[in-house]
Amino acid sequence: MTILIKEATIITPSEEQRTDILISDGKILQLGKALKYAADRVINASGKYVFPGGIDPHVHLHLPSPAGFSSDDFISGSIAALFGGTTSIIDFVTPTRGQPLIEALDLRITEASDSLVDYSFHISPVEWRSTTEEEIKECIRRGFTSFKIYLAYQKSIGIDKEVLFKVMKVVGKAGGIVTAHCELGEDVDRLRNEYAQNGHTSPLYQALSRPPQTEVDAVKMAIKMAEKTSCPLYIVHVSSGASLIHIRWAQQNGLPVMAESCPHYLLLNEEKYQGDFEKAAPYVLSPPLRKTEDQQLLWRAFINGTLQTLGTDHCPFSMQQKAFGKHDFRNIPNGAGGIEHRLALLHTYGVLKKKLSLQRFVEISSSNAANIFGFEKKGKIAPGFDADMILWNSETTNTISAKTDHSNCDINIYEGFKTIGAAETVIKGGEIFIDNGKLLQKVPGKLILRKPFDITIKQ
Ligand SMILES: [Zn+2]
Q1: Per-residue pLDDT tens for 106-121?
Q2: How many angstroms does the Cα of residue 17 sit away from the middle of ligand 1?
Q3: pTM for the full predicted model
Q4: How far apart are the CA of 153 and the centre of ligand 1, in A?
Q5: What is the Å distance from ligand 1's center to 313 Cα?
Q6: Cα-to-centroid distance, 79 and ligand 1 (Å)
Q7: From ligand 1's centre to the CA of 58, what distance in Å?
Q8: CA 59 to centroid of ligand 1, rounded, Å
Q9: pLDDT tens digits for 48-97?
Q10: Average pLDDT over residues 144-156
Q11: CA of 312 to the centre of ligand 1 (A)
Q12: Exposed/middle/buried for 443, CB within 10 Å: 0-12, 13-18, 19+?
């Protein structure tokens, strides 16, 4: 299919540029003024921005939990992503202990094969075995260059300092990157059990058992390890302002440290844990929501470049599933959705509130993730790149609700949030998927394979 987009306003690192865009065979063929071509479809984009398709570097679709699978599978989750202007995601491969990484990877590739958006995975070494080094190298040879480690969840998938050192040493040398969930698992487990044993079982105590210091200490440990091993480090879902000081310090000292936060840490705070179970349980996440001051510090970190990406950590559970922990917060499945709202929230509360420029919006929602994770042909509107792009109407208003969103969950933690700006047309791989609020096709997305790389990223 060929598409000619007329009069698009695209955002380059230095300016806004008015151009036509010619798309052919899934790629951007040409940019230029007044292009002439007998395309299958001509779209007039005057008055609209054309952004590179959103890349959400942190989603969990079809995630197993003791309360059952998370609400969105790869079909419903990717449809919600497309409606919000996200055309690529990175999900996770989480083996059980004893299971080879490659075996878990192959299973996950099959599970994800009906995703409508393009997808890749962060792969989790959950232990160190005699074969782990070779398994990591094999993952990289197969095109998976990012490895997610958990410093929380020590009893199931979490690893300790010694294993972290070994993983980072191997990954760094092989041209990959380690992404880290930074909460000190032992401290969290101790607090959880203490609260529960003393009869404190409401959702509030899930949050209180994961204080900011457990994140800060883990961030410090991971940064120290990045320094020792020269392995690039990407800290996921930073929630606390105090963590940013250490991340900033690392970056100013030339360490390859990058970090992500999520819309819920920017826009919601710990007051959500007050009130009865039904009110508070939807906000049970890890790390938990923090204070208003943390929100302000996180915004500032997006402005000054300490934080590079906004991931959603999309992992919704229904109210019925949350009720598994009605009498003990330790049984509430952790997680909430957001995959559909990332761009609209960032636009409304970042760009329109004059915190972020449009250049920064494009970097945070797409290009930085492409650079950090080695999506060579994504994250930019330029000849030769994948034709993943969205026509953005800056004036479309919406009120977020679980009743109208496309996620398969009866909870939406942004319920009632007003947004301005929306993806009107969504093109992925040179095909139109969303046109004026309608999903036109359900063609499966592509598995994105990546090469080992050197990271250069704009801070
Ligand atoms: Zn996550």
Answers
A1: 999 999 999 999 999 9
A2: 36
A3: 0.97
A4: 12
A5: 5
A6: 19
A7: 6
A8: 6
A9: 999 999 999 999 999 999 999 999 999 999 999 999 999 999 999 999 99
A10: 94
A11: 8
A12: exposed
Cα(4) to centroid(ligand 1), Å: 38
Q: Which fold has domain 2-51+384-402+419-439?
A: Urease, subunit C; domain 1 (2.30.40)
Kindly indicate whether the domain formed by 54-373 is annotated with CATH number 3.20.20.140. Answer: yes
Q: Ligand 1 center to residue 315 CA distance, Å?
A: 7
Query: Domain locations in the chain?
Result: 2-51+384-402+419-439, 54-373
116 Cα–ligand 1 center, Å: 20
pLDDT in tens, 86-105: 999 999 999 999 999 999 99
